[in-house]
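User: Hi! I have a protein structure encoded as tokens and I'd like to know what sequence might fold into it. I'm fairly new to this, so please keep things simple.
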């Protein structure tokens, strides 16, 4: 991805004065400013790369430093603003997002490719998340607990962490930034955010809404550009106390190393290789619909995508045939066309990676390519990144296509003989984000729920479809133990302070002066 964009950026510098394309800016200290280096990166439509959406600053480390300085200056004012007042601003931001939802949706489809309905869902998730975070302004609950000595009071309060760096991916270009930004703000932190280089306009729209809502200057700062420069500087900046990252497992590890150097808090949300188990008593038609939605929604570019379908051998043939039939019916095209089911993938590097995996599946793994598998290049597809929805059958759990995250419209059907074997297969990957089971048997459903080692589990539904008031995150290679969304996200963006109040008027020493209750 980065290489492709670098090539585009060079082209931008050569042609930037000749076209009418809008030049966007960074947002630092409440002002819209160009990058100090002056370069820009083009944001192009993955359905038609002739369509340039805008040019965004190709920022430098100096831009990050300026944004961090602005966040530092704004921190005291923001953290001392009562949380209910902070929340009022977020509620206003939510209303602005609601007001402009349609425009944001169109912008998102144009820059990211997902079909309008899904882009609308992405914006809606940002709205939901904003309102939910704003509601926390009047809660942000701490707790009290009995102290172990008389005339002593014990309690815990949440305090902001400080300056936070947020690094976000392109697949949910407004929802994921909002998942991080809104809880960070309601907790009283100030923020520097870097969107993925492929999808800056959705984050730009989010920040514009914050500005209009009255978020004070410096509280939110937007710096666009490449991961290796802007992202790396954010990850390693000595003044950023917390880095929240969503993206690939490899990049997440790099971010974690940079944080470890200075003992910064690091919250990671990374890959997935999510399985739907389909048992012999399942409603097969419903399971097929779930599999189609889970595997091919957002062109399979979700960390929760249903990329493995573990199917009991008694219904394996029926399920596979129906799945292939449905996959072949899906209309691939420009997501802005309401008749289209599956949009393009994000960029040329993604095409190359997905096509490589299709080749591995067929020629190295020896799976059966039951449908799809081709890049679409002719006619309306000529200027975009389109790949047919692809189903592999006769897949075994150890094959690379069943182990590695492809992040495209490709899914693998794996036959199984029993529930316990299915669970073992589901757990047998390096990731642990989401899993699902289709069955009519409550005992099997709960057994699978208990035995799958993932952060999310669905019964009679695909592996996707998170709601903002439940914690989101995964085990193993997916994360590092944190959960976003829900009230659990507050544990990322606030730090606990334990407070002891001794009103006895004398020295009382914990663990030493306790009067024994018995004996
Ligand atoms: P993908 O390969 O799906 O684009 P990445 O993990 O590379 O996923 O990207 C997720 C986010 O991380 C993007 O905003 C990207 O710019 C950023 N990023 C990429 N490389 C680095 C890095 N070395 N340090 C920090 N952030 C990075």
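Assistant: Happy to help. Inverse folding works backwards from shape to sequence: for each of the 519 positions I chose a residue that suits the local structure. Here it is:
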């Amino acid at each position: 991805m980065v290489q492709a964009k670098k090539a585009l950026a060079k082209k931008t510098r050569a042609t930037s004065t000749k076209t009418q394309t809008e030049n966007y800016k960074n947002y630092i200290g409440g002002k819209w400013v160009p990058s100090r280096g002056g370069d820009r990166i083009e944001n192009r439509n993955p359905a038609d790369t002739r369509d340039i959406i805008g040019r965004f600053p190709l920022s430098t480390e100096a831009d990050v430093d300026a944004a961090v300085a602005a966040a530092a200056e704004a921190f005291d004012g923001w953290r001392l603003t009562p949380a209910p007042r902070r929340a009022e601003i977020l509620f206003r931001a939510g209303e602005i997002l609601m007001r402009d939802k349609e425009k944001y949706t169109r912008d998102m489809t144009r820059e990211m490719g997902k079909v309008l309905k899904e882009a609308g869902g992405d914006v809606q998730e940002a709205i939901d998340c904003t309102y939910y975070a704003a509601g926390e302004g009047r809660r942000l609950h701490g707790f009290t607990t009995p102290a172990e000595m008389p005339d002593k009071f014990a309690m815990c309060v949440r305090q902001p962490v400080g300056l936070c760096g947020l690094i976000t991916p392109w697949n949910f270009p407004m929802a994921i930034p909002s998942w991080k930004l809104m809880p960070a703000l309601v907790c009283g932190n100030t923020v520097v955010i870097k969107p993925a280089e492929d999808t800056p306009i959705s984050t730009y729209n989010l920040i514009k809404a914050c500005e209009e809502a009255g978020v004070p200057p410096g509280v939110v700062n937007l710096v666009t550009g490449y991961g290796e420069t802007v992202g790396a500087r954010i990850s390693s900046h000595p003044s950023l106390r917390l880095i929240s990252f969503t993206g690939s497992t490899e990049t997440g590890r790099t971010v974690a190393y940079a944080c470890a150097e200075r003992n910064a808090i690091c919250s990671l949300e990374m890959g997935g290789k999510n399985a739907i188990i389909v048992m012999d008593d399942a409603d097969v038609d419903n399971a097929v619909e779930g599999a189609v939605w889970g595997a091919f929604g957002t062109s399979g570019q979700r960390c929760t995508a249903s990329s493995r379908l573990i199917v009991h051998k008694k219904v394996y043939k029926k399920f596979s045939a129906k799945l292939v039939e449905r996959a072949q019916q899906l209309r691939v095209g420009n997501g802005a066309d309401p008749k289209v089911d599956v949009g393009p993938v994000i960029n040329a590097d993604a095409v190359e990676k997905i096509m490589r995996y299709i080749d591995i599946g067929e020629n190295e793994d020896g799976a059966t390519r039951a449908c799809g598998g081709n890049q679409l290049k002719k006619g309306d597809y000529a200027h975009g990144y389109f790949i047919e929805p692809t189903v592999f059958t006769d897949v075994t759990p150890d094959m690379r296509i069943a182990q590695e995250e492809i992040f495209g419209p490709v899914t693998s059907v794996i036959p199984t003989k029993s529930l316990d074997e299915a669970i073992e297969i589901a757990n047998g990957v390096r990731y642990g984000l989401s899993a699902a089971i289709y069955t009519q048997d409550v005992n099997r459903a709960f057994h699978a729920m208990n035995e799958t080692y993932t952060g999310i589990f669905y019964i009679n539904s695909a592996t996707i479809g998170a709601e903002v008031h439940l914690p989101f995150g995964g085990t193993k290679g997916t994360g590092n133990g944190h959960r976003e969304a829900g009230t659990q996200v507050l544990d990322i963006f606030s730090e606990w302070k334990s407070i002891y109040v001794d009103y006895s008027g004398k020295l009382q020493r914990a663990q030493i002066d306790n009067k024994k209750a018995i004996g």
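A useful reference point when you look it over: Confidence is low (pLDDT under 50) at residues 1-18. Feel free to ask if any position seems puzzling.
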